[in-house]
Recover the amino acids of this structure.
């Protein structure tokens, strides 16, 4: 580019006590010995190159301020070609100052770009990490809550679970089921839970143990089971969900980070309120695969401790698997939440093999009376 | 166009006297009273200036309205009274070239040779300055009226000047500001209640407001009954 291609006149401004208000707009020209600024009303200002003090700033960060030594006159310009024109006309008098200013500005821009480039993903990553850490810690904090919280949430969930269903109250059905639960409950991992049963007149092969210990058994489960030990196997698994507080953990997962954060400071009120507002058992009986595996292992431990053969749970799974296709919709309720049962059967058998020798005792319940009553 | 600012500083109103053909543009809802020889029309851009729907949307992000109202005097000696929504002061600024950066909602009115546009202030300033994410940039030559929450005070900065976040009304484009801690240590500043502040550098005029509308809102909010 030749000197003739360089723009020499720029839109600029002047700070001086000699202009009204101390500031006005002007045009600035780079002349041989200095800068000349001319205002709209004809005032003319001159700054010699050898007395110029330069500064970069303004709201955009690209405004070049040219001042005299006592700062009584400042000519400033933001136009892109101005620094180049200034350097061309002033030569060595200003080249060092200009180079210093622009290298500092470039360095600042680079640092800011780098910070933005590195900082933004790190910030996002940190926020995502914090979100999951709070959720995780919230779930862990569930284990420190008093059992009364489980009971409150279980009471709320029971209302929605049993809504519109008919309860079976025949003692020939209720008593054997309660006896099975009574045999297992002394070995529950969480003390203080009161396991109460109710039986719903539904053909679904299902059972649920809500937080706090409320157990709902569906008629279909009792019909599908061949022995009381198989019922004990299923109930031990369901009771383990309550003793391991999986329901509360699921509730924390589905209610979000604010409730989890509240739990971390020891306030369970939000959790109970959210469950009450949702009014749904689904939020606390939808378990993850890891929770199902944990419950299998805990169920087996409880059965073994209560001297009930834990393999009954595995044999119940096997038989359900072999149900004819047309009966599957009834069975699907329980199995759908318990996937990969081949893997689970194998895991149960492997766990049983590691257990200490135990003399298993049969469940002394009137199983035939229960079956007969169901048929009636 | 003559003007007079009345009832300063907490309930300020600006009274404008317009000659035939003179026009002023102001924010929607600012008109308090007017003579009958004034015509009013609304648009999304300044009269005779580029803009349109996008300019209106950008202005909304800065805390202003989508529309602008234009008052034109059809006869000599027409009076127009303008006041902002919030209780506070009004100040007159004469723009002689360059631009004035105004925090969202502090622009009240300006004459026809001034362009009003919204400008992004940058991520850091958007988050920490205590102001809107967008500012109003007024450019050209003419009169601008600014409003504040509480009283306005004017500072001619030459060097450095510090203002608490949420107290900026407007500043000339020859000033640069950064968000920084009030003291040497950020933790000390936070504990002292000052936290982050806006530090201005350069030379130019700065308008600040005595009160912070966000602080007032957070004090008042909890005492209000839910609707």
């Amino acid at each position: 580019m030749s000197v003739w291609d360089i723009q020499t006149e720029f839109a600029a401004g002047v700070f001086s006590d000699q202009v009204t208000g101390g500031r006005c707009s002007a045009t600035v020209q780079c002349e041989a010995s200095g800068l000349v600024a001319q205002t709209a009303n004809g005032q003319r200002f001159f700054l010699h190159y050898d007395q110029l003090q330069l500064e970069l700033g303004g709201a955009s960060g690209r405004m070049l301020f040219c001042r005299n030594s006592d700062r009584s006159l400042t000519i400033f310009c933001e136009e892109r070609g101005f620094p180049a024109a200034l350097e061309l006309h002033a030569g060595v008098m200003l080249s060092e100052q200009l180079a210093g200013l622009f290298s500092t500005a470039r360095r600042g821009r680079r640092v800011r770009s780098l910070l933005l480039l590195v900082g933004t993903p790190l910030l996002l990553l940190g926020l995502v990490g914090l979100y999951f850490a709070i959720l995780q810690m919230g779930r862990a904090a569930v284990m420190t809550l008093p059992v009364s919280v489980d009971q409150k949430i279980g009471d709320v969930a029971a209302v929605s679970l049993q809504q519109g269903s008919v309860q079976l109250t025949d003692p020939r059905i209720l008593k054997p089921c309660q006896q099975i639960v009574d045999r297992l409950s002394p070995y529950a991992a969480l003390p203080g839970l009161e396991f109460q049963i109710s039986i719903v007149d539904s053909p679904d092969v299902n059972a649920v143990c809500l937080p706090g210990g409320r157990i709902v058994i569906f008629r279909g489960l009792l019909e599908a089971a061949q022995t009381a030990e198989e019922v004990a196997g299923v109930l031990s698994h369901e009771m383990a969900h309550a003793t391991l507080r999986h329901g509360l953990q699921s509730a924390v997962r589905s209610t979000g980070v604010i409730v989890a954060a509240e739990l971390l400071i020891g306030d369970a009120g939000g959790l109970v309120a959210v469950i009450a507002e949702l009014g749904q058992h689904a939020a606390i009986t939808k378990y993850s695969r890891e929770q199902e595996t944990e419950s299998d292992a805990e169920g087996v431990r409880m059965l073994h401790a209560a001297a009930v053969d834990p393999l009954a749970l595995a044999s119940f799974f096997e038989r359900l698997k072999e149900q004819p296709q047309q009966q599957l919709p009834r069975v699907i309720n329980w199995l759908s939440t318990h996937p990969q049962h081949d893997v689970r059967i194998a895991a149960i058998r492997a766990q049983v093999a590691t257990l200490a020798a135990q003399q298993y005792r049969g469940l002394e319940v009137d199983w035939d009376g229960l079956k007969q009553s169901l048929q009636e | 166009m003559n003007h007079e600012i009345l009832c300063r500083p907490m309930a300020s109103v600006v009274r404008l006297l317009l000659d035939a053909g003179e026009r002023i543009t102001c924010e929607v809802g600012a008109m308090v009273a007017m003579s009958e020889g004034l015509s009013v029309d609304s648009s999304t851009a300044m009269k005779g200036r580029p803009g349109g729907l996008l300019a209106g949307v950008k202005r909304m992000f800065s805390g202003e309205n989508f529309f602008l109202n234009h008052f034109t005097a059809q006869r000599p000696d027409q009076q127009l009274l303008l006041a902002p929504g919030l209780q506070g002061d009004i100040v007159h600024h004469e723009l002689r070239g360059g631009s004035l950066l105004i925090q969202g909602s502090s622009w009240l009115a300006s004459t026809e040779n001034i362009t009003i546009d919204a400008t992004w202030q940058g991520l850091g300033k958007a988050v920490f300055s205590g102001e809107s994410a967008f500012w109003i940039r007024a450019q050209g030559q003419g009169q601008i009226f600014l409003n504040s929450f509480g009283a306005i005070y004017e500072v001619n900065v030459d060097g450095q000047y510090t203002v608490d976040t949420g107290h900026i009304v407007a500043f000339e484009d020859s000033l640069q500001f950064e968000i920084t801690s009030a003291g040497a240590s950020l933790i000390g500043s936070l504990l002292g209640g000052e936290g982050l502040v806006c530090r201005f550098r350069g030379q130019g005029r700065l308008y600040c407001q005595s009160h912070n509308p966000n602080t007032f809102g957070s004090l008042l909010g909890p005492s209000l009954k839910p609707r």
Chain A is about 55% helix and 15% strand. Chain A touches chain B through 22 residues (CB under 8 Å).
